[in-house]
Amino acid sequence: METLNELQAEKVLSGDQLTSKLATWKAQGLKLVFTNGCFDLLHIGHLSYLLKAASFGDKLIIGLNADSSVKRLKGESRPINKADSRALMLASLFFVDAVVVFEEDTPLNLITTVMPDVLVKGGDYLVENIVGAKEVIDNGGVVNIVDFINGYSSTSLIQKISGR
Predict the structure, then answer these.
(1) Domains of the chain
(2) 46-57: per-residue pLDDT in tens?
(3) Cα separation of 11 and 4, whole Å?
(4) Would you say the pTM of this structure is higher than 0.70?
(5) How far is 157 from 148, CA to CA, in rounded Å?
């Protein structure tokens, strides 16, 4: 891949494109990993988390909150970066195989479409509180929780940049 357009075409997928890729990957017997987030300002905490998530399987699929969803979840001043930019940043990572933008506040619909072998969430969640965990487990998958690296968050970066 030599250009941003090629990168976008290869890894930033619509729902239909994702469905096609999923069929291919599942037919090949590949282990699918799914995670999601806003990923507004990409930082080392994100990279560490996503690299760990990718290590749980063969293909890493990221559900990315759309701008309207980020605004509802994080406030009127967010996102800092638009969804197309955030998607390309994630897609540029060699260990990311697909990025899909979703409009809802939770990725439940996307999770049930992907039905990953491994659902990954970061932080101090309990499995029973993770959106989509029940569906994935009921389908024979597993849920892995990855610890965040302390001191790294998009919110803290924004505060630091703005002098707060």
Answers:
(1) 4-161 (3.40.50.620)
(2) 899 999 999 999
(3) 10
(4) yes
(5) 15
